[in-house]
Design brief:
Layout (H helix, E strand, L loop, with lengths): L1 H5 L3 H9 L3 H17 L19 H7 L5 E5 L2 H15 L8 H26 L4 E5 H6 L1 H12 L5 H13 L19 H7 L1 H7 L10
Parallel strand pairs: 1-2
Length: about 220
């Protein structure tokens, strides 16, 4: 999926949809086992993996890692779609010519496809495998959300864990990084179209209307 994110080649995306991702996940599991075997201090430790690109392959990932707890961060598509398209447009700058509206239309369709596949996969997998986190809550109360995830995963908490989390948060404050500036209009996107395309997801997982990170 990295190639899809780095180069605007829609035909590759169509091919990728037909490719069985099971082998890649099995290879990943083998590599992780090898790395854990190499480092004695990691033996018995839980694996923590993060990949937004796994959204359309959630069922494959759940099958490859049958004991995994799947942590899902929920953010309003009114923000996700233009933000993601803006990121892709920036990565595509290596190309000689890029039409930002064409990129916007492509990734709007692509993200809709991914979300539909995720919702179907989640229904098949079962709710007991998931823990849901509100994107804005992570910014407001990161320690509380981290503790929720750790508790669900059965990872022991205590002063050392809290100190480590607090140290990380202190060194990675949001205001230390520039804001990501993006808009719907720049990529030819329309709010009503996004609302309609992601209506099922928003009704189920977005507690309050958002859009451009509304407070």
């Amino acid at each position: 999926t990295m190639i899809e994110g780095m180069s605007f080649v829609p035909s590759f995306s169509h091919w990728l949809d037909s490719y069985d991702q099971s082998r890649g996940h099995e290879d990943l599991k083998t590599i992780l086992k090898y790395l854990q075997w190499q480092a004695p201090e990691r033996r018995g430790a839980k694996w923590i993996l993060k990949s937004p690109s796994n959204l359309p392959y959630t069922e494959v990932a759940a099958r490859a890692f049958p004991d995994a707890v799947l942590v899902m961060t929920h953010r309003d598509p009114l923000d996700v779609v233009p933000s993601y398209v803006s990121m892709e447009a920036a990565l595509y700058k290596l190309s000689s010519t890029i039409d930002e509206r064409e990129v916007g239309a492509f990734w709007f369709r692509r993200l809709k496809e991914w979300m539909d596949r995720f919702l179907a996969a989640r229904a098949a997998i079962g709710e007991d495998r998931f823990i849901d986190i509100d994107y804005r809550a992570v910014g407001r109360e990161p320690l509380v959300q981290a503790e929720r995830v750790l508790a669900r995963m059965g990872i022991a908490q205590g002063p050392e864990m809290e100190a480590a989390l607090s140290e990380f948060l202190a060194g990675n404050r949001r205001e230390q990084r520039p804001m990501h500036d993006y808009s719907l209009e720049r990529f030819g996107l329309e709010e009503d179209a996004i609302r309609a395309a992601f209506a099922d997801y928003r009704a189920r997982y977005i507690a309050e209307p958002q859009g451009q990170e509304a407070p």
